[in-house]
Specification:
nine-stranded mixed sheet, Alpha-Beta Plaits, 15 strands, Rossmann fold, 2 domains, alpha/beta
Length: 372
């Protein structure tokens, strides 16, 4: 059985976060069960965009700090890094409060601007990945996601957070190459099996519901969670927000592949009781109707255009152009008065909605999709 530890943490007060992280590690037998003294470790927070900590978009700096302290105390050599969706790592880390933490503790911030092709461990979709060079220069990866919703994957947690190890603009290229949602989910599974983080520690103090992963509403969940198996971690997050793991497309695909740790009977919970933190009315994006990519192309296109949720630009759009830059299919244009999305060519990857800094893009479900 795979072990998942849960510790209560009601705020981002430094002592409370440090205590919760330490308790999770103790419940799992100690940090030394996952890394050894002298090893170089990449600490991979979720750094989506340049937002202050109170916005709840990125992994909170106090969670990053608490993890770094544990690593340093064990004689490890941590490195912090991510490949943000919008902006440079230096700019995003500065705004998110991560740079200040790194400077305080003398921990380097990675460059994450050089790529190297890494062979996939179990490549069902891709045989190799264009990853940031730092992945090949460390002995272990510790994954620090934040609990948030996501238009494409419903939730973004342990597995989806590893997509930030793909180098820069290659993430957009992969969205364009892997246009079918099911194929994209399978790629994320391949990626997680390739990177193989030794440990995932989840920032669940404040979770984001609704129009995540950038413009949703923050909701207190009050916990730090940790586990070795990223799929088991995500299955536990799904249960926390009132979903069966099978209702999360990525986890449903992982089940079909026989990946362990997805059923409750395969998970040994330690620490606090899971039931105390479940939010049954957590606002989660609707599930897209899933069809196999092996069906004829015209069937896939029909479902994409008449069933799957589609992005809609709202009246509060400021025409900043970030959605235009984020769109891998380049189907967004800027007019004199508004931005326009070519719905017929839209991939339904929801990158525009993910990266919009003004909550000006929402997902709308077509009439037919509401009945399927």
């Amino acid at each position: 059985m795979t072990k998942i530890a849960i510790a209560r943490c009601g705020s981002y007060v430094r002592n409370e976060v440090e205590g919760a992280v330490r308790k999770c590690l103790q419940e799992l037998g100690g940090l030394q069960n996952f890394v050894s003294s002298g090893q170089k470790v990449l600490v991979k927070p979720n750094l989506l965009a340049a937002e202050p900590p109170e916005r709840g978009v990125d992994t909170h700096p106090e969670v990053v700090r608490a993890v770094l302290l544990e690593l340093l105390a064990l004689g490890l050599k941590p490195l912090v890094g991510d490949s943000p969706g919008v902006g440079s790592l230096a700019r995003v880390a500065q705004k998110a409060g991560i740079t200040e933490i790194c400077d305080e503790l003398g921990v380097p911030l990675g460059n994450f601007n050089q790529e190297i092709e890494v062979k996939a461990a179990d490549g069902k979709i891709l045989k190799s990945f264009p990853l940031v060079e730092e992945i090949t220069e460390v002995d272990a990866v510790i994954n620090l996601p934040r609990i948030k919703t996501h238009g494409l994957t419903r939730l973004t947690g342990a597995v989806k957070n590893l997509f930030g190890c793909v180098a820069g603009l290659r993430k957009g290229e992969m969205h364009f190459r892997l246009q079918h949602a099911d194929v994209f989910q399978e790629m994320l599974i391949d990626l997680a099996l390739t990177i193989k983080p030794v440990l995932t520690i989840v920032d669940g103090v404040m979770a984001m519901e609704g129009n995540g992963p950038r413009n949703g509403n923050l909701r207190p969940m009050g916990l730090i969670m940790a586990g070795e198996n990223p799929f088991a971690v995500d299955a536990t997050i799904a249960r926390l927000i009132g979903l069966s793991p099978s209702a999360v497309p990525l986890l449903a695909s992982a089940m079909k592949r026989g990946i362990s740790g997805l059923n409750a009977t395969e998970i040994e919970l330690r620490g606090e009781q899971l039931e105390e933190f479940i939010i049954a009315d957590f606002q989660v994006p609707p599930a897209s109707t899933r069809i196999s990519f092996r069906v004829p192309e015209f069937v896939t296109n029909f479902f994409r255009h008449y069933v799957s949720p589609y992005p809609v630009i709202k009246a509060n759009c400021r025409q900043c152009g970030i959605c235009l830059q984020a769109c891998p299919a380049k189907v967004i244009t800027k007019g004199q008065e508004s931005m326009t999305i070519d719905d017929r060519q839209c991939l339904r990857c929801y990158c525009c909605q993910e990266f919009c800094p003004h909550d000006a893009i929402e997902l709308s479900t077509p009439f037919l999709g509401r009945f399927l």
